[in-house]
Amino acid sequence: MSQGSALLRPVTLGDLVLPNRVVMAPTTRCRGCVPSELHALHYARRAAAGLIIAEGTWISPQAIGAYPNVPGLFAEEQVSGWRRVTDLVHALGGRIMVQLWHAGATPLTLPEITATIADYCTAARNARRAGFDGVEIAANGTYLIAQFLNPRLIRRTDAYRAGPRLLLDVLDAVLGTGCRVGVRLSPYWTATDSTPACPDYVPDEETLSRYDDLVRRLDSLAYLHLRGPTRFDLDAFTRYRKLFDGFLIANNGFGRESAEAAVESGLADAVSFARHFIANPDLVTRFALDQELSVADKAFNYTGGPAGYV
Ligand code: PHB
Fold this sequence. Notes:
Strand content: 5-15%
Structural class: alpha/beta
Order of helices and strands: EEEHEHEHEHHEHEHEHEHH
Number of helices: 10
CATH topology: TIM Barrel
Low-confidence stretches: none
Bound molecules: P-hydroxybenzoic acid
Distance between the termini: 26 Å
CATH class: Alpha Beta
CATH superfamily: Aldolase class I
Helix content: 25-40%
Number of strands: 10
Mean pLDDT: 93
CATH architecture: Alpha-Beta Barrel
Radius of gyration: 18 Å
Number of domains: 1
């Protein structure tokens, strides 16, 4: 039993009390466009997480990307499907936010951007109606918002030049709905591929300094959820801890010991886990007892159905 575990120390996220620092990361699992009993079971079994951030969820039909069977928050049946999930997680004593996702990839004109920002707000209001404790704006990977931030993906419109403006406008608008709002960034994800499999790519200083400027401007948020380098490197988080005073969730490649070290040293306020939560619904207990972890079988990542999921 790890008595003085930093990961098991409660912490407040704004006015939300997290009983521990073990966060479940948003994880695409392709189990249906409308959340079902299967989703309820999946999330409920992980309700002991300090915070669940539910999988990337499309804000509108236009936001849908290449993955099939990913849920949304734009149709009434999705709102009520999610409500069943959040009610159960809350009944079990948990906390659950949801990641709002737009895959991007077709050039956007200014009216489309304006409409897209409105779609983020509608999805955030729907997230509240669905009982979520807040939303995370996906600005990671190769998706819409990152397409304005990441020099390898950059595209321009007349009104929205490459840079942080789209993200900042989305954040302002969504904050205006009264939601608790976090953001996920991946400054080290420089591959143009949607699978983050480029461990040796090192972002150039220009890229990192762009993200530095952005991170300095995020202090009104509930949290910053930061994906570290693909090749695990705890030191990479030092840069962001210096720039960001708020609640920092570190992610990518952590195990119990490195997560303990990150929280104990103050480098992060919490650590999120994807693959460990897939294979270990009781991850918090396993960490507490320093038990061995099960290993996820990737073959079931996107298959649909209960196998490898619940
Ligand atoms: C991530 O943000 O780490 C991420 C997003 C989408 C994926 C995989 C990883 O498909």
